[in-house]
Design a protein that fits this description.
388 residues; alpha/beta; TIM Barrel; Non-ribosomal Peptide Synthetase Peptidyl Carrier Protein, Chain A; nine-stranded parallel beta sheet; 14 helices
């Protein structure tokens, strides 16, 4: 199967068929720029709520900050009310110059699903259709593509992804992303890439695959195995923004910093950084965060990334703890200077899960949610703040 070299979302052309998944508290303007500096692709803002956008909620609007170099602005919206979603889409297009709107129907967080949102909503097929139609109608005058992201279903007994794909296509969506897990799996277990392939043969719009892409070769295997038009990368890039450099090289067919792999059928496309390069990446990340938020808050934001950056490296516990409590750039520089820049990348962590995994759990739903698949006229309260 031919590996795609770019991605078309309606009028929008993405040079590399790779999308940074929106992650709450992670994919702010600083992290998006850091990843964008590594390789071509599409980089999505943190998930925002449609109600928050429409009602000009201060917390929501702070999330809609873009870097000056961010020429293609991409935002993911969460919403359960068609009117709110439509109005929010129009505001994003008209006032924020957004070039791509993605709608979240995959979030597994209980505070979202108990309101019928996120991964719970596609069970209500007609409601899903109404939301998508409102969003597409609002975006069309601005020539902005609307896409959706979803999961296989609520659980294995309540699958929705094939219907969601059909509804998205009928509503005029430019593409659909499928995370190959059910809502009850959250981030546990193994992503079902076969479901991604099934969806790709079921609809005529591009299907993007999401789930268990830890290395560039995983992305190539996914598109070759499923026929997906591209990939969406989330947890795999935590503490590893250079993954987008590897992905860009892989999809372009370039070989970079080859690392021989015993028994590998083809050479690796990984560009493994020594601790010195990781150290420089941490410093760059901190610099961007401080420019965005101010030095005090920016350094605090960096703390959550420290363990991801240093995963597998032989950095002592005291130094790790100090880095996770850093309060200023000067302090950060002093602590980073203690790292051994020559230490090679720990190959043992390659291909292994990053970030939260957890275990399967019961999905919290509104009372009677599974009684029908309609949803027309149902009362689903809109959340003000991001749920995921």
């Amino acid at each position: 199967m031919t590996v795609p070299t770019d991605l078309r979302l309606g009028p929008l052309r993405v040079d590399t068929p790779v999308v940074l998944a929106p992650m709450a508290g992670i994919t702010n303007a600083a992290f998006r720029r850091l990843c964008r500096e590594q390789g071509a692709g599409l980089y999505v803002c943190e998930m925002t709520t449609s109600r928050g956008v429409v009602e000009r909620d201060e917390t929501t609007l702070r999330m809609l900050r873009f870097d000056d170099t961010e020429d293609v602005r991409s935002v993911q919206l969460y919403g359960t009310d068609p009117v709110y979603v439509g109005k929010a889409t129009e505001i994003l297009c008209a006032e924020y110059g957004v070039a791509h709107v993605d709608l979240n129907f995959g979030c597994p967080v209980p505070k979202v699903t108990r309101k019928g949102g996120g991964g719970a909503l596609p069970w209500k097929r007609r409601l899903l259709g109404e939301i998508l139609e409102h969003a597409v109608r609002a975006a069309t005058p601005y020539d902005v593509p609307v896409t959706i992201k979803t999961r296989k279903g609520i659980d294995d007994q309540h699958l929705t992804f094939l219907d969601a794909g059909r509804i998205a296509q009928e509503a005029g969506c430019a593409a659909i992303t499928l995370h190959g897990r059910t809502v009850d799996q959250a981030y546990s277990g193994v992503a079902d890439w076969d479901a991604i392939g099934e969806l790709a043969t079921h609809v005529a719009i591009p299907v993007l695959g999401n789930g268990d892409i830890w290395e560039a070769d995983d992305a190539l295997r996914m598109v070759e195995q499923t026929g997906a038009a591209g990939v969406v990368v989330g947890r795999g890039c935590l503490g590893r923004p250079w993954l987008f450099r590897d992905l860009a090289a892989a999809f372009a067919g370039r070989r970079v910093a080859m690392v021989p792999e015993e028994g590998a059928e083809r050479p690796s496309r990984r560009a493994l950084p020594a601790l010195g390069e990781v150290r420089a990446m941490m410093r760059r990340h901190a610099e961007l965060l401080c420019a965005l938020m101010g030095e005090e808050r920016g350094c605090k934001e960096l703390r959550k990334h420290v363990a991801w950056y240093l995963r597998g490296f032989s950095v002592g516990g005291d130094l790790r703890r100090s880095l996770a409590l850093v309060t200023s750039l000067d302090e950060l520089d002093e602590l980073l200077s203690r790292l051994d820049g020559e230490e090679p990348f720990p190959v043992a962590v390659l291909g292994t899960p990053r970030g939260r995994q957890g275990s399967p759990r019961r999905v919290v739903l509104p009372e009677g949610w599974l009684a029908d698949t309609d949803g027309t006229g149902c009362v689903v309260p809109e959340e003000m703040h991001s749920g995921g």
